[in-house]
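Quick log. Single chain, no ligands specified.
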Amino acid sequence: MSKVKKALLITGYIALLGVLGAYFYFATILVREKKQSRCQEVVIVVRDSLLNPLIRAGEIASFLKRNPVELLGKDFSHIDMYQLEKEVESFASVRQCNAVRTIDGTLRLEILQHTPLFRLETRQGSFFVSPERFIFPIVNPFRMPVLIVSGNIPFDYPPKYRGTMDSADTWLKEMSRMTAYITAHPFWSNKVESILVENTEDIIILPRDEDLVLKIGNIGRFTSKMDKLREFYRVLEPLGGKEKYNLVDARFGDQLVCTHRKNEKNI
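-> predicted structure:
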C-alpha cells in the first residue's frame, strides 16, 4: 500500500472517529437536556421546622399525593409553579411555598409556616391561631406546646376552617389579645397552662401544676384582672395562700375574693 493511500485511510478513520465522537457527545447532551426538562426528584424543605415543628416534609408529600398532584417524570413546561405553590399553601400550617427548579431536574419546595399563638379546642375541631389572627386546623397537637383555650367557645367557623379571623369576631380578637399578653408576660407565661371558657361571662385561668382556679369573668379589662391575680401570688402565696384557698376571683371591681378550701370563709 502506498504512503498516500495509507495516509488517506488513516485520515478517514480519524474523521470517522470524530464524527462518532461528535454524535455521542451531542446525543449525550440531548439526553441530559431532555432529562433536565423533566422533574426527576421532588425535595421538600420545611425551613423553620426546628423552631416550629408543626408539619413534616412527608406530610406535605402525602398531601400532594392525595389531591393528586403528579410531579415526578412530568415535563417542567407542564408544571404550573404558581398553582403548585398555592396548592401547598392551602395545607395546614404552611404560610409560604417557594417552588424552585434546579439545573439537575430537581423540584425543590421551600416551606415557611404560620407560628401558633394559642390552641383552640372547639366543637368544630382543634385549631391553632397565629399572632396575625390566622386560623388553621391542627395536624398533630403534641408537636407544639402552646396555651390551650377550651370549653364553650363561641366559634362560628366551619370544621377544618383555614383562613383569617372574621373582622366581626370581637370575642376571638380579644382572646387573641389576652393570650398574647399572657405569652409575653414574664410571670404569666410560665404560670398559665390553659384557659377554660365556661361561657363568655365566666372565664377561668388554670395554672400549671397547681390545684387552683383563677376566675376573671368576661374577657373585658383582662389586664387589670390579671394584675389583681398577680397580687395573690405576690402577697398571699408566701403566707400559704395556695394551701388555704382553691379559688381566686378577680371579677369584683378592685376586690380579690378568695374561697377557702374547706369553705369556711372568704377574704
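The radius of gyration is 32 Å.
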